[in-house]
DNA sequence: CATATATTGGAAAGCGCTTTCCTAACGACT
DNA sequence: AGTCGTTAGGAAAGCGCTTTCCAATATATG
């Protein structure tokens, strides 16, 4: 029912071809007076080009698909924000899917479903930012390779099992190691790791980085506790750990050995660390004197937190921007990488 | 270059029409053996329907457009999350746009640009969640009415200047009033309002609600300070207010009059409140003994904050879900409303 | 002034689907 | 056996654009 190009053409007294050339960037530009007539006709009728039809005719859609795990998670929303910025540069619209929200089918299928939807809409590119699962679905890999062979571009945040995809490497491992090293340099010797779910790639790699950092200092973690990749996951894991220590007095005697600096909790991300801090507070353990905490990501919203969270800062928005640039520019590099910086703050005893 | 339906049909030895009927929900279902042949041909060739072509033929796209202000803001990302959930139910894909990110053109044009893009893609519906500007762009209203007349559905969060749009009313005003009433009931008498930017509708309405609540208690705010709708905005506004009070001793004598309970800062949203708390902490004012703070929204990430923030809880995800349902179900009600609840916590002296 | 060369607008052929309309086949019924 | 009502597959006409190819006109060249 919307007005179509043929009506505009008729209204302006020109052919379809001419109207098309005037209104949509063509290599051929009709004469100025004709162009003017067409433009005002379009304006007058309130013409808006049908992008679907254009996509069909041009065989390029101006769409970019972004799949995240949970858009409500500040980690992903920051990335999404970066993607939007880059998408605007190339006048792309972003199609968003979240793998945390499952319809029918198994939870693991959400990513496949999202990717298939994007492929169906013939997005020019797909950005996979959902922290990938460990055992990648072969159907996903197959669908994506086919998509790439058909001219689609795929970029993944972190390594993936799709050989043809462009990958934006994130210094999760190195960052985790660097964070531990910085903490060790502060005199901390005893660590507990809140590892998140072990099937999540990102979490696993960070934990490996933590362990590697510890090993380099000839240290071993007091414990490695798994849990959900959420605030509640951090809370529960912390409670679990504290309970394993006995009652409060016993716990304190372990955590705060006079001879050494307190135990430091290494969380696989900031949100987990946040949950951990809440748990500690509820046990009336004070940070950083009784126990210390470090996170990962440096989520913007948490920068106002008190005590300020020691963490490894990842340039989340830039990651999104970079990924989108790699995805949207056909000539972009096939791979890129981002690193972050250790940010020492109060939660780990920094003044 | 992707495989198309005609190839599948040929591979299965049937006509285009039959293949279409088998693979895409048609009212007519071909015989079982034929269907099987088509399906396995599709599977074998890795056929994925071209949604653009389907959209063109069916004149419905399966797309829903969501325009937010800043997807990195937890308020909007929570809403987006809700929208995603509802969109999955109707198998819609969500197209996301943010008005905080501006290309060329004036910043105010971002919303118009987003809406025009969505109209161009012929989204089945558009959800306007960006906290609307006070002076709505007439071009926006025009574009949207035309869109609605052409069969599109529009739902706005909060009132809008588009008479044909469905509106999901949010109890910003009532919530703000209720929050103040609850605070007054706690014995608080002196309030400072951090109003956010005055051109933002949401902020303005909330401030009106605050003022209304105060008036009902025969009170007036000590001050109303405007600023950005961000953490930094809250920080700056708070610093500005504190500076107006003189040095720390003078400030303290004002804030914490022995005869009365401390001054309470009413922020137009949680993020502003967060910034305010950071500012207070940097001035070594303790919450809630020296000064108190209340926010608005009850952002999930902030629930782990200490001191816990008194606020008005809005069911953000549900709002998104509801808005999307109103948008996606043609037969849905033309309007709906959501209210929240006052949540008294430590930051305003609640035990 | 005639011919070769750009330019410019228009007709029409797709782009990959859906869906109406048609025809053929089949079974049921008298 | 003949007729009618069903059902099922296929041909073809769009959906709203872009773009190639043509024809016609305008410009440049000898």
From TrEMBL, chains A, B:
Indicate yes or no for the key word Flavoprotein.
no
User: Which InterPro entries does this one have?
Assistant: HTH_LacI (IPR000843), LacI/GalR-like_sensor (IPR046335), Lambda_DNA-bd_dom_sf (IPR010982), Peripla_BP_I (IPR028082)
Which Pfam families does the record match to this protein? LacI (PF00356), Peripla_BP_3 (PF13377)
Q: Does the keyword Cell membrane apply?
A: no
Example of a GO MF term:
transcription cis-regulatory region binding
PROSITE patterns given in the database record: HTH_LACI_1, HTH_LACI_2
In terms of Gene3D superfamilies, this protein maps to: 3.40.50.2300, lambda repressor-like DNA-binding domains (1.10.260.40)
Which keywords describe this protein according to UniProt?
A: DNA-binding, Transcription, Transcription regulation
Sequence ranges assigned to domain HTH lacI-type in this UniProt record: 3-58
Q: What is this protein called?
A: LacI family transcriptional regulator
Q: What species is this protein from?
A: Arthrobacter glacialis
